[in-house]
Amino acid sequence: MFQVEYSDPRYKARDMLELILNKIMSGKTPDMIETTFLLSLKKQEEIQLLKRVARTIRKRHFGNKVFMYGFIYFSTHCRNNCTFCHFRKSNKGLVRYRKTPEEVIETACHMADSGVHLIDLTMGEDLKFYSQHENINNDLHENTYKHLHENTYKHLHESTNKHLHEAMNKHHHEWMGNQQPDGMKTVVDMVSSIHAKTGLPVMISLGKIPVELMSDFKNAGAAFYACYQETHNRSLFEKIRKDQDYDERYNSKLYAKKAGLLIEEGLLSGIGDTIDDTVNSLFEMKSMDADQTRSMTFIPQNGTPLERHPYVDPQKELLTISVMRTLFPDRLIPASLDIDGLSGLRQRLNAGANVVTSLVPPGKGLAGVAHSSLDIEDARRTPESILPVLEECSLVPASCDDFNHWISMRKLSSCITKPLNDSPKKYNKTSLYVENYPTLSAHQNDADLFTVNGHACHSATP
Ligand code: SF4
């Protein structure tokens, strides 16, 4: 439990919010107590100040540039039964689909032409997708697989993280069961084709996958592995991610990081989580050195155990995005179109997000996740449709070079930082990306300092 102590001698009589915001503006990140304080803000005036600080920090590290991700949910089949998910196995009240690799590649090319910076390949844990394609992928010879397996584990053996190795070994056997890896090769090949044809990096969001293939995915052109814990409260995790192993899911991201992929971690807001849970999640994200951190509001789904869950106010998600920006100044934070569609984009960007995610092209028969059809077929989730919103927020789309540069710098930064199991307090990375913006310095003038009680704030607008 984190108690906010207004009588904390560090703060004396000074206003705590002012002190925290000025600390953030001076280039530091809030500690757990301060993070709890920020997530507890209720007054609109104070929340708006926090958002302005978040935008200023974003500008310091990314200028006015925003990245855009094309989203391809290529199989809506899943073996799992997450209580919050529309596509859980037990939900019989929906039509599911499974796209062919050719359809996926064609859609990815279409999205690349429309201007996105990354292709996000997402599926449920659909074992059939893999088995369906086993025969056409028998070019992955057993010996090749054996070689891959040996090399991967050799790397792990050589590392000092024995615990992670053991956990991943267990994970592999439980995941694969009787499945052959050949089917997975289909997805690796898809990533490879998409990367070759579009020149774009790929994010894989395939659920828990055999860890041996992480390196293969990386070599094929995957830059990110996304696998959301949704909460880092273990008892809540057990309730919402039914019959899934907390540690396996968590460790899969550590393994991906070791294999050279960037990682995205995410949490779901409004599903029984407390402020302490959110603080804990944010510091877990720091601990795992997440490269992209997302917060999304829970949307009750028909045909699920939580379909009658009360409406969740997205303000909590927005506040979390702003606090994330203060904790992860130089990282990617999504403004997802999946929750409120195009109409919710402005407020997410104004909270400090710097990536527009869940762009889905119309006419391809593709679904979203939280809102399976919102804004898709009327073309409100395309790069073109978001441009006016970016303009309103004084933002512009980045170039592909900008994005690739950011990825390279992050990978470099990850390589030179400490091992994953170090205390998050030991991480102290400075932004390398800022070099791209010569008009910005890592610590702008003290004119940026905030005051809470009526003085003008020199910060990012609007
Ligand atoms: S959240 Fe993912 S793993 Fe869980 S049921 Fe939905 S698609 Fe499957």
From TrEMBL:
GO molecular function: biotin synthase activity; iron-sulfur cluster binding; metal ion binding
One Pfam family per UniProt: Radical_SAM
Cofactor(s) annotated in UniProt: [4Fe-4S] cluster
Keywords: Iron, Iron-sulfur, Metal-binding, S-adenosyl-L-methionine, Transferase
Stored InterPro entries: Aldolase_TIM, Elp3/MiaA/NifB-like_rSAM, HydE/PylB-like, rSAM, rSAM_sf
Class of the enzyme per the UniProt entry, highest EC level: transferase
Matches recorded under SMART domains: Elp3 (SM00729)
SUPFAM superfamilies associated with the record: Radical SAM enzymes
Lineage: Bacteria, Pseudomonadati, Thermodesulfobacteriota, Desulfobacteria, Desulfobacterales
Residue ranges of every copy of the Radical SAM core domain listed in the record: 64-338
Enzyme Commission identifier(s): 2.8.1.6
Species per Swiss-Prot/TrEMBL record: Desulfamplus magnetovallimortis
Protein name as it appears in the record: BioB2
